[in-house]
């Protein structure tokens, strides 16, 4: 089947094949189905190319709610997610 992890891996691999790198990678999720995605972006293996990988950019895996997770970071609730996205978007 298709998982968020497979989608993230494919997206990052396609970017690497085109010699494109994201400015940063931010994945936010709140349930078990997000754990595969967190693992993919935290592993450092997808998106590798002759010139390196997307991991020489900043990578942020963030779960909503403090709980055991493969995500390195967490926010308390969806209100914090909105505030973070607004701050990233700027004025």
Gyration radius (Cα, Å) is 14 Å
> So what's the overall shape?
globular
Number of strands: 3
Helical percentage: 25-40%
Distance between the termini: 40 Å
The pLDDT mean sits at: 85
- Please report which band the strand proportion falls in: under 5%, 5-15%, 15-25%, 25-35%, 35-45% or over 45%: 15-25%
Structural class by helix and strand composition: alpha/beta
Secondary-structure element string:
HEHEEH
Strand arrangement, major sheet: 1-2-3
The low-pLDDT segments are: 46-52
How many structurally independent domains? 1
Main sheet makeup: 3 strands, parallel
- Secondary structure tally, helices: 3
Structure overview:
The protein has 91 residues and is of the alpha/beta class. It has one domain. Helix content is 38%, strand content 18%. The chain contains 3 helices and 3 strands, in the order H-E-H-E-E-H. It has helices spanning 4-17, 35-43, 78-89; strands at 24-29, 58-64, 73-75. It has a 3-stranded parallel sheet with strand order 1-2-3. Helix 2 links the parallel strand 1 (24-29) and strand 2. Helix 1 (4-17) packs parallel to helix 2 (35-43). Residues 46-52 have low confidence and may be disordered.
């Amino acid at each position: 089947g298709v998982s968020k992890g497979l989608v993230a891996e494919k997206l990052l691999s396609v970017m690497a094949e085109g010699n494109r790198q994201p400015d940063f990678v931010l994945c936010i999720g709140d349930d078990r189905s997000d754990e595969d995605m967190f693992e993919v972006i935290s592993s450092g293996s997808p998106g590798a190319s002759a010139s390196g990988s997307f991991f020489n950019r900043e990578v942020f895996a963030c779960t909503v709610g403090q709980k055991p997770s493969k995500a390195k970071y967490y926010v308390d609730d969806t209100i914090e997610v909105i505030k973070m996205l607004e701050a990233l978007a700027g004025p």
